[in-house]
Design goal:
With about 80 residues, this protein is α+β, with helices and mostly antiparallel strands. Helices cover about 30% and strands about 10% of the residues. It has a two-stranded antiparallel sheet with strand order 1-2. A hairpin with a 2-residue loop joins strand 1 and strand 2. The mean pLDDT is about 80.
Length: about 80
């Protein structure tokens, strides 16, 4: 039997722009019986999507948004700062 049997988690878009409020709500809803997750908050703008959040975790590999998507950059810009927030 799995240790995660009967547990819940979530994934998907979350309304609003306050990550702190979203995380507090997620933790409250799970109430210790689930696996916490970080919601995607598209209302926060570029860098707040799953690709931006993942790119923000790349140590020493800053990214920036372009008209065709994301690309490696010379230094961390607003996209990286927004995604790390």
């Amino acid at each position: 039997m799995s240790l995660l049997a009967g547990t819940v988690t979530g994934m998907g878009h979350w309304p609003g722009t306050s990550m702190a409020e979203a995380i507090t709500t997620v933790l409250g809803e799970l109430a210790g019986n689930g696996v916490p997750f970080q919601p995607t908050m598209d209302d926060r703008g570029p860098g707040a999507d799953r690709i931006g959040q993942t790119a923000a975790m790349l140590v020493d590999m800053p990214v920036e948004a372009s008209t065709t998507g994301y690309r490696l950059a010379h230094h961390q810009g607003i996209i990286g700062r927004r995604a790390r927030d």
